[in-house]
């Protein structure tokens, strides 16, 4: 079969450093003839702004569309804080989601036993935590029109954004959540503010109808977004799969991540709809940012990027065994006590980005 | 001076029970001739729906407008889950906020030492926590137009809500936050999603300009809402005053409350603009809901409603000493080890709603 086409977009800050460690894993699979990838690299974020004036060029978008999967690093930094709203580094992510139709953002929040103390929540509250948040990623208030800032006759300004969801947008992301739940504990919690927003009311009605019609085997519940924020702190283990809109998903998935205590460990996937041949555009990225303050110092944790590769192997290349292998290697390294500074604990061994990457390779 | 006019709106579920305990405190002040109140009661929420078909009647709104302060209980319950979107119990709160112009929702999140173990966060993370969240309450996506659910030509539905903020709406709520910060640690953190929403960008620009022009003595910082959700779990004590819009404020204030671990303890105030005579419409309510599952069982915690009265005395009646007296009484009772079931701990004394109310009275 043809080699899988993989586009690497390291981006800014610690992005390139952590990507570097992951390419070692890819080369290992290649050398061992387990799988062979057709890899290329592109510029995004500040790196792209510096080179082209744009956070992402049409050429890079086209190459992403032509790839079987995109592995993304992180973008942004103080250097580009003053660029215009339309060309800020984050636009690279938003453009890729939108142009590639990546509507389902999968955000696992899991607590690994060796890192249970990293959470600010009590160990009894988070032990064994395993939540999957499915966040809608190409709709809602992130993309709705009208939007903008206008000047009123009296000189005042008015800022406007629009939250819009159609039945089909809600259904397709809910399907992803229901399907995932079937492979997990069989429970979906749908989250909105149906008590104050009509878009949330339509969300609730649509998910309810779809669940009843096609997923009677999945237990569906509903929760208001404010309550969900509270429940993620009070008793996060009550959740299996959470499905929610773009904006609530932004806050709640980050919140759930922080409950695990180790942002430097968590990957994410953003998936499009499968086409007639079953091919599905997809992007994988660590949930941490570009962390410009620690960039270039060799202290970044490469494991979130490595776990992102594992998700990529599982969801896009159907390489479940290899994905599990990579995840097991990461876990072993943690069990051996190796820690980058972000997850350092008393009595453990502090290592650099490179040392961590090398240790993962050794495990493989 | 004329008696202060106080409107009590107990509402549904545990609302009436906890309000009952608070009226004892008011009667005590009256009997001791410390202050005399012109008290009356009205129906809101499900109780009002049952009696009139509406969650709040124009008559009750008018009486609220004519009062010096409103003390609100809680509304809602499964009995009214199926009423229409426009007449659901929550509309009572939204109508009061909107009609009385109560644009500044003050949500303290404090950890009392006797209850530090109630939090799911580690004691070292929350000890001494004292955050004040100022949430905009009459604007944003809660009230913006256009809104609704429409049917498209192809039979699909589309749900729409609009986030709108004008310069003056942002300025007046930011002023409340800056003024509060001056009486506290002098720090304001303004929260939005300026990286994806223009309304958030206008928010940031407006708060920045106001801070520079009039509050140079207050330290102003900015944070994206997703990051704020994380920081509230990672290190909540970094915050003094947080100011944010209606929707983010809904999630973040509930999240901050849950970080304290004792929702049954936390009050809130919602304030309007002072008129030319300095009079300011205001509403006070506990942040907990109507908790229909435990209503009528004598197990509800009346302390949040009692702390709400303390806020009322402080902010609306300028009775700072009496407010402090009430708060001290609540704290003493906790120090004596009395606990309603929601905050029960090993080795403490379990009490009923009434017993808790009586104990507070004894302290007074
Ligand atoms: C970078 C930014 C636009 C983005 C968002 O708000 O969606 C980020 O926070 C995320 O969650 O992926
Ligand atoms: C009752 C409901 C409309 C309300 C809101 O969402 O604002 C509540 O959650 C609150 O925070 O006061």
Automatic annotation (TrEMBL), chains A, B:
Note whether NAD occurs among the keywords.
yes
Q: Could you say which residues bind Mg(2+) here? A: 226, 250, 254
- GO MF terms, alphabetically ordered: 3-isopropylmalate dehydrogenase activity; magnesium ion binding; NAD binding
Name what cofactor the protein needs.
Mg(2+); Mn(2+)
Every Isopropylmalate dehydrogenase-like domain range: 5-360
The positions annotated as site (Important for catalysis) read 142, 193
Residues bound to substrate are 97, 107, 135, 226
GO cellular component terms, semicolon-separated: cytosol
Q: Which PANTHER family match?
A: 3-ISOPROPYLMALATE DEHYDROGENASE (PTHR42979)
Q: What is this protein called?
A: 3-isopropylmalate dehydrogenase
What gene does this protein come from? Answer: leuB
């Amino acid at each position: 079969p043809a080699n899988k086409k993989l586009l690497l977009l390291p981006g800014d800050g610690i992005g390139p450093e952590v990507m570097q460690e992951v390419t070692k894993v890819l080369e290992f699979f290649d050398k061992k003839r387990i799988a062979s990838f057709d890899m290329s690299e592109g510029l995004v974020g500040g790196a792209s702004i510096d080179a082209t004036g744009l956070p992402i060029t049409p050429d890079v978008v086209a190459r992403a569309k032509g790839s079987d999967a995109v592995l993304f690093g992180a973008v942004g930094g103080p250097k580009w804080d003053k660029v215009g709203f339309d060309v800020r580094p984050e636009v690279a992510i938003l453009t890729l989601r939108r142009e590639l139709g990546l509507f389902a953002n999968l955000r696992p929040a899991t607590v690994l036993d060796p890192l249970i103390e990293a959470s600010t929540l009590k160990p009894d509250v988070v032990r064994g935590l395993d939540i999957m948040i499915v966040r809608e990623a190409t709709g809602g208030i992130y993309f709705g029109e009208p939007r903008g800032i206008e000047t009123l006759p009296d000189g005042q300004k008015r800022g406007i954004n629009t939250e819009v969801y159609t039945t089909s947008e809600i259904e397709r992301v809910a399907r992803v959540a229901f399907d995932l739940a079937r492979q997990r504990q069989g429970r979906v919690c749908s989250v909105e503010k149906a008590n104050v927003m009509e878009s949330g009311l339509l969300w609730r009605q649509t998910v309810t109808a779809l669940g009843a019609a096609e997923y009677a085997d999945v237990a569906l519940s509903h929760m208001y977004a404010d309550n969900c924020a509270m429940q993620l702190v009070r008793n996060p283990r009550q959740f299996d799969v959470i499905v929610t809109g773009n904006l609530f998903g932004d806050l709640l998935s980050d919140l759930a991540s922080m409950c695990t205590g180790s942002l430097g460990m968590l990957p994410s996937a953003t998936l499009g709809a499968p086409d007639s041949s079953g091919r599905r555009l997809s992007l994988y990225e660590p949930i941490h940012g570009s962390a410009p303050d620690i960039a270039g110092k060799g202290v970044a944790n490469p494991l979130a990027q490595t776990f992102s590769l594992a998700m990529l192997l599982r969801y896009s290349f159907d390489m479940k065994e290899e994905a599990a292998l990579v995840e097991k290697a990461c876990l072993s390294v943690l069990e051996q006590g190796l820690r980058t500074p972000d997850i350092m604990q008393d009595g453990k061994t502090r290592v650099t980005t490179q040392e961590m990457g090398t240790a993962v390779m050794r495990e493989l």
